[in-house]
Amino acid sequence: MNTKEIFMETYQKYIHRPGAASLLNWLLSTDFFEAPASTKYHGNYAGGLALHSLNVFERMSHNCVYEHGKDCGGCEPFPAEWMEPIAVVALLHDICKAEFYKQDFKNQKIYSEHGKQFDKRGAYSWESVPYYTVDEKFPFGHGEKSVFLINEHMRLTREEALAIRFHMGDFTDRNTGKAYEMCPLALQLHIADLQATYLDESAQALGKVV
């Protein structure tokens, strides 16, 4: 299966509350499954956003089961009902990036033995290459925007809203630490987001598996 199919299968397996189908249909109407996760950092390629969301889900669900599940050292089996909030915040934390990027072109030096010009690095030619840039249509923040877009279709719990709002870990906001103290789901999402970005996607970019 491709990334889009895996995302949809995971979403429909774990998210069942009223409005879930409407939200998924909205995602399908956007560029969510074709969009990058960033302009030049992690997942800066077509489909990077959906893949990042899946990576965060895999990390977060693994972390939570490992900490709390009986099969991985906990006292009792991992509660099945806990999987829905994990899926909600992990799969949807970055939907603010749907319809957020656009592709443009820029001139760039391409080095090769066939280059017609030279500099200290060698022979090169100027070529027009594609790149992503931001085209914000709804400037409403980052986590805040994702919370707003989800709530247009499906109701979030307070814990889920806090998790998505503070997943970036911006400690210049004095409420970030408080959110993590109050809401373990928020801290788990932030940790999984970091792991997915700096471990999984770095390895994927190198063609490796973590």
Overview of the structural elements:
This protein has 210 residues and is α+β, with helices and mostly antiparallel strands. It has two domains: 3-100 and 136-205, no CATH class; 103-133, no CATH class. The chain is built from eight helices and three strands. It has helices at residues 3-14, 20-29, 48-68, 83-92, 143-151, 158-165, 175-182, 184-205, and strands spanning 101-111, 117-119, 122-134. It has a three-stranded antiparallel β-sheet, with no helix packed on it. It is elongated. The two termini are 20 Å apart. The mean pLDDT is 89.
Q: Look at the helices and sheets and give the structural class.
A: alpha+beta
Low-confidence runs (pLDDT<50, min 5 residues)?
none
Q: End-to-end span in angstroms?
A: 20 Å
Number of DSSP strand runs: 3
Number of helices: 8
Keywords:
48% helix, 3-stranded antiparallel sheet, 210 residues
Task: Explain the layout of strands and helices.
Elements: H1 3-14, H2 20-29, H3 48-68, H4 83-92, E1 101-111, E2 117-119, E3 122-134, H5 143-151, H6 158-165, H7 175-182, H8 184-205
Helix pairs in contact: 1-3, 1-4, 3-4, 3-8, 4-6, 4-8, 6-8, 7-8
Brief overview:
The protein is of the alpha+beta class. It contains eight helices and three strands, in the order ααααβββαααα. A three-stranded antiparallel β-sheet has the order 1-3-2, with no helix packed on it.
